[in-house]
Specification:
- This protein is 31% helix and 16% strand.
- By secondary structure, the chain is α/β, with parallel strands linked by helices.
- The protein has four domains: 120 residues, Vaccinia Virus protein VP39 (Rossmann fold, 3-Layer(aba) Sandwich), CATH 3.40.50.150; 108 residues, no CATH class; 93 residues, no CATH class; 105 residues, no CATH class.
- Helix 7 packs antiparallel against helix 8 and helix 7 crosses helix 9.
- The longest helix is centred in the middle third of the chain and has 16 residues.
C-alpha cells in the first residue's frame, strides 16, 4: 500500500500539530481513526498503533528516540523548529542503519495554504498489535448486537457506562475477547472499518509491550465472571471491574494515568485523557472497598488479591513504565551472591542435549547447581501462564493456544550476539534502565548506553 492508501484508509495520528484545522484530506477521509494530540511525554505516541504519524513541533524529537514502531509512514513538517537539532542526528542514524528511507516531500493542502512534509517510509514495522476500527454505519450498537448474536465471549473492559455511546468524544472501545473468538471479531471489524477506534485483546495473544494484555488466568477470570451491562453489552463483574481497571492504571498507563504516587522523584501526569482517580474511586465504592487512591496502595491491594504481575513480568513492563521501574527495580547494583533459576524447555530434552546444557551452566564458573526439579504437568501450566508475561514463544509468532505453551528454543542455535549480552550482564554489566538500553558495538561486545548520551566517534 502507498502513503496515499494509508492516508485514505488507515489510522492517522497528528502529534504536536497546533493549527486549528487539519489538512484537507481529513475532511474526505471516511475510514480509519484520526487523532490529533500533543503528548506530554513522547513515549505516549507508541501506544497509538497508527499507520501514519504526522509530526510537528516537539514531537519531531521521536526521530532520535521513541520512534513509533507500528508506523508504516512518518511525515515530518518541514518548518524551522528547535526540535530539529535533536531530530537530525536520529534521522541520520536511522537512515544509516536501514531502518527508514526518505521517500519524497509531499505537499498537503490546508485551506488556502500548502504544508510541506518530509515522507519517511518505515522499513522495519513491528505489528504486535493492530488497532482496528468500526464504521459509523454499524456503530457501537451494531457491534454489540453482532457479538451477542454470535454468542461471542467478550467484555467491554472499561468506560462502558454510556454505551452504546462512547465515554468521551474521540474515545475508543477496549474489548477483551476469548481466544476462540478472536479471529471472528477481527474479521468483522476489518470488513466494517471506520472512525471508531476498537482495541481487541485476548488472554493468550502477545500484544502489549510484547506480553499478554493481562496474565492469561486473570484475563479468563474477567471473561468468565462477566455480567450484562448497558446496551446489552458484556462488562466485568464489580470486583473484576475494579481489579482490571487498577491493573490497567498501574501497569499499562503508569504515571500517564494521573494517579498520585508517594515515590520521591516521580510526578503523575496532571492532564490525563480520562479521570482515572474518580473512576477508581467509583469502582472501589461499588464493592465496598475503602482504599486511598494512590499507586502504591493500589499495588499492595492487587498483590493481596493475586493480581500483581510476577517479578519477571514486571521486568518486561519496567522499561516503558517509570513507576514500575522505580518501585521494583531502582536499587544500587552490587555483586550478586544469591540464587538464580534456569528454566529449560521440553525441546532441550527432546533433542537429547539436556545434560550438555546443565554441564555448560556449571562449567561456566558463575553458577553451582544446587537442585534440579522436573515440573509436573499442572506446574508446567502454572509457570507458562504466570511467568514471562504469559509469553514463551520468544518472538517466533506462534500463538500459544494453537501450539505448545512453551515454544522450542534450541540452545545450540543461540545467536552469538544474544549470548554475548547474557555474558555481559553476568559479568556485572549494569542492567538497562528506562533511560538507557543495551547497545551492540559490532565487535562482539554489549554495553549500556544512556539515551541522551552520544556514541564516541
Amino acid at each position: 500500500m502507498t502513503l496515499e492508501d494509508y492516508l485514505k484508509n488507515g489510522n492517522v495520528v497528528f502529534c504536536g500539530y497546533r493549527r486549528n484545522r487539519l489538512p484537507d484530506f481529513i475532511v474526505e477521509k471516511k475510514v480509519g481513526r484520526i487523532k490529533n494530540f500533543t503528548p506530554k511525554n513522547l513515549s505516549e505516541m507508541r501506544d497509538e498503533y497508527a499507520d501514519v504519524y504526522l509530526l510537528d513541533h516537539r514531537a519531531v524529537k521521536v526521530l532520535f528516540a521513541d520512534f513509533p514502531s507500528s508506523a508504516r509512514y512518518v511525515l515530518v513538517r518541514l518548518l524551522p523548529r528547535l526540535s530539529w537539532v535533536v531530530a537530525i542526528p536520529g534521522l541520520i542514524r536511522r537512515l544509516r542503519l536501514g531502518l527508514i528511507k526518505i521517500e519524497r516531500v509531499v505537499a498537503l493542502q490546508n485551506g488556502d495554504s500548502i504544508e510541506r512534509w518530509l515522507v519517511l517510509k518505515h522499513l522495519r514495522v513491528v505489528t504486535l498489535h493492530t488497532r482496528l476500527s468500526l464504521s459509523d454505519d454499524i456503530g457501537v450498537q451494531g457491534l454489540l448486537e453482532y457479538l451477542g448474536k454470535e454468542s461471542t465471549k467478550y467484555v467491554v473492559l472499561r468506560f462502558y457506562e454510556k454505551l452504546p455511546n462512547l465515554y468521551r468524544e474521540g474515545g475508543d472501545l477496549d474489548l477483551l475477547v476469548g481466544d476462540e473468538d478472536e479471529l471472528k471479531v477481527k474479521e468483522f471489524l476489518a470488513k466494517n472499518p471506520g472512525k471508531i477506534g476498537v482495541d481487541v485483546w485476548t488472554p493468550s495473544r502477545t500484544s502489549h509491550n510484547n506480553i499478554t494484555y493481562y496474565p492469561p488466568p486473570l484475563a479468563r477470570t474477567i471473561l468468565e465472571s462477566a455480567i450484562l451491562g448497558p446496551a446489552n453489552s458484556r462488562i466485568p463483574a464489580p470486583k473484576e471491574a475494579f481489579l482490571s481497571f487498577a491493573y490497567h492504571t498501574l501497569y499499562h498507563k503508569g504515571l500517564f494515568a494521573g494517579v498520585p504516587t508517594t515515590i520521591s522523584g516521580l510526578e503523575a501526569n496532571k492532564h490525563p485523557e480520562n479521570d482515572y482517580v474518580r473512576e477508581l474511586s467509583r469502582l472501589a465504592k461499588n464493592i465496598g472497598l475503602d482504599i486511598d487512591v494512590n499507586m502504591e496502595e493500589l499495588d499492595e491491594y492487587l498483590s493481596k488479591e493475586g493480581w500483581r504481575p510476577k517479578l519477571d513480568t514486571l521486568a518486561k513492563i519496567a522499561p516503558r513504565n517509570k513507576w514500575v521501574w522505580k518501585r521494583f527495580f531502582d536499587f544500587e547494583r552490587s555483586k550478586e551472591n544469591g540464587m538464580g533459576i534456569f528454566i529449560l524447555k521440553q525441546k532441550v530434552f527432546d533433542l537429547g542435549i539436556g545434560d550438555a546444557v546443565l554441564k555448560t551452566i556449571e562449567d561456566g564458573g558463575e553458577f553451582r547447581i544446587l537442585r534440579i526439579k522436573k515440573f509436573k504437568p499442572e506446574e508446567v501450566r502454572y509457570v507458562a501462564e504466570h511467568l514471562r508475561g504469559g509469553v514463551w514463544n520468544d518472538g517466533g509468532g506462534e500463538h500459544p493456544r494453537r501450539g505448545r505453551a512453551c515454544a522450542p528454543w534450541n540452545v545450540n542455535q543461540i545467536p552469538r550476539r544474544r549470548a554475548s549480552m547474557f555474558e555481559a550482564l553476568a559479568a556485572g554489566a549494569r542492567m538497562p534502565t528506562p533511560n538507557s538500553r543495551m547497545v551492540w558495538d559490532g565487535r562482539g561486545r554489549w554495553s549500556r548506553r544512556e539515551l541522551n548520551s552520544r556514541p564516541k566517534s
